[in-house]
User: Fold this.
Amino acid sequence: MYMALSRQNSTLKVILTHDVDWPPSGPGIEHILARKERFDEKLISKVVKEGHNPYYNIPDLMEIEEKYGVKSTFFFRPKYDDGTSIGAYKEIMKDLVKNRWEISVHINDARTLNSIKTEKNAVENITGRTIHGSRVHYLNIKLDKLSLIEEAGLRYDSSITFNKKAIDIKNTGYFKVGKLVAFPITIMGAYLFTYMNITEERIIEVINKAVNIAIGRGFMTILWHDSSLKMRGGRVYPSILEFLTSKDNVEIVRGIDAYNHVTRRIKS
Assistant:
């Protein structure tokens, strides 16, 4: 059952998330060079001369977030497009778990209960911990299929966006499908630079607008892909954290923290 919920609160909890869409080796030099306008010339030179992969930025994200005293949620795919298993990320995932970042599953195939369970188990086998959250790759799931995610034993999901082209109040707060808590994506970096056509110079302005819209709803969710951190636009991530952590009415949380806050409120 789909149930829309809003939440009045003077403090906004910003759920900070990253999708890990590529294996550690990245998409390959040809892919990167075909999109070289997304990067500065110095970085492209490093790609050509040293084989540098600018898409792998998990350690950089950890360093940035440590600087601002925040933790986030990373969504890992159990298998990548080139056949690489999630096991390739085992060591960095250990570091994430050890230092209290959250790991969740980035589901490749959400069409059946069995496929969701299989992918959840694959991530759990690597981390040695129960996975509580999910996001479907390419957000490829309909509202009426979210019940499958609940049946698979996941507690929360963040795969839904009701509007890709604007900061929309419908993409704030949370809603429930049975016992599953769903957090719509309020801001996705990729959408800022495509559907919304926002320049780097205006990103903080847009983040501020989102905060002001979401404040009465209690939650907003940010998706910033790890692969975008060194791209034009994506590289402003540190400035976003600087802005958010400067606001007295904003708290940055992981997905599981937001879920626990919601369930405590419901029980009370």
Remarks:
- The first helix runs from residue 29 to 33.
- The CA atoms of residues 190 and 224 lie 8 Å apart.
- The chain has ten helices and eleven strands.
- The mean pLDDT is 95.
